[in-house]
Amino acid sequence: MNSNSAAWIDSPYADLTVRQAPVPTPGPGQLLIAVRAVAVNPLDAIIQSNGAVMYGWLRYAVILGEDVAGVVIGTGTGVDDFAVGDRVVAYAMGLEKGRDAVSESGFQEIVVVEAGLTAALPTAVSFEDGVVLPLALSTAAAGLFEEGQLALDFSRLGGAPPRDEVVVIWGGATSVGGNAIQLARAAGYRVITTASARNHDLMTRLGAEAVFDYRDPRAVDRIVAEVGGSRVAGILAVAVGSAEPSLRIARATGATKIAMASPPVSFYDQPRRRGFSLARIRLFLTLGTRTALLQVRSRSRGITPSFIWGSAIAASPVGPAIWGRYLPAALASGEHRPYPQARVAGRGLAAVQHAIDTLRDGVSAQKLVISLDEAQRGS
Ligand SMILES: NC(=O)c1ccc[n+]([C@@H]2O[C@H](COP(=O)([O-])OP(=O)(O)OC[C@H]3O[C@@H](n4cnc5c(N)ncnc54)[C@H](OP(=O)(O)O)[C@@H]3O)[C@@H](O)[C@H]2O)c1
Fold first, then answer.
1. Domains plus CATH for the chain?
2. For 302-338, how does the pLDDT look when each residue is reduced to its tens digit (9 = 90+)?
3. How many CB atoms lie within 10 A of CB 293?
4. Is the CB of 239 under 6 A from ligand 1?
5. Pocket of ligand 1 contains residue 175 by CB under 6 Å
């Protein structure tokens, strides 16, 4: 393939525009992928809504997108585990500091990815179904297993004997949460989680032993009662606003670690434009106040809250444990289900902007996916 097309964001806050992009070259340890499906994440919407306030290192024009599935069309030096023609799913790292937010970002026809953050996709799993995984799975793994997060034992992932230790996941129906349920179970832990009532059966099928509605004012009490006297190994606070109830659970159960995937306020709640606005000032004031309060209220009780950075696994032993050893086998055996369910929101790169806008309105146990099959690439 000697031409490439991408959905570019040309400047902070701008809509995505589809046009030509350079054909990237894989470096050592990297793969070149012909992309067949991408998924949108809250991160894409948040970066677009916040301009240079977040991810200030980006030099526009750049390309968003973290989740890709497709076919290997080239390999860099030192790659032994993949060959041209392999069907794969991969975490595109372009938006991270020090990476290339053009060649390594997902919303394009041809992308460069790290072989170490790529897994073979079984033929039974479509590109659309598989592409829901990368950022969500990586973030779940970072929160559960990284030193400085919950630091759970992942040494026998997939073959771990059950242990009488509980992991509480606030927001089990989120993309991150549904993967965290499966990973925590694969590591041998018991899981208690929260979700809307319509998703309770689904959470149970993923491996949660008990599920409570996060809108129930008594959800914290019910979770504490469910824990009984068992040791709580850690609490994963996934959804926006999860830290507060997670702290109450920690205080009541004696848990000492809370790993948070989200800030205490939604970054969607502001206009998508440059400059000061009342909404933006209010958001950052609330963010600062709630974060400071959380730190004080946690530390005074010996509880350590930490903020998860999903990409951390790229530079730690968690990355190879998840992407190299666990995921390929667990996908092939069906032990790890692609979660959440893919909802194809359009075909061709021109559909990505609409999918991001749709995500801002909220989804329930679904991932918005864009199909880039051969006929529709770039259109
Ligand atoms: N720090 C990082 O590295 C990192 C990486 C990825 C994502 N994140 C953040 O993690 C959060 C989740 O991302 P995602 O992609 O997993 O989200 P998502 O799949 O879009 O989450 C949708 C789900 O959120 C659930 N939800 C909404 N409000 C909730 C609440 N108050 N309590 C519990 N669950 C609630 C809903 O559950 P029901 O349908 O059951 O109501 C819904 O199914 C986002 O804030 C995202 O920005 C952080």
1. 4-132+340-376 (3.90.180.10), 137-311 (3.40.50.720)
2. 999 999 999 999 999 999 999 999 999 999 999 999 9
3. 14
4. yes
5. yes
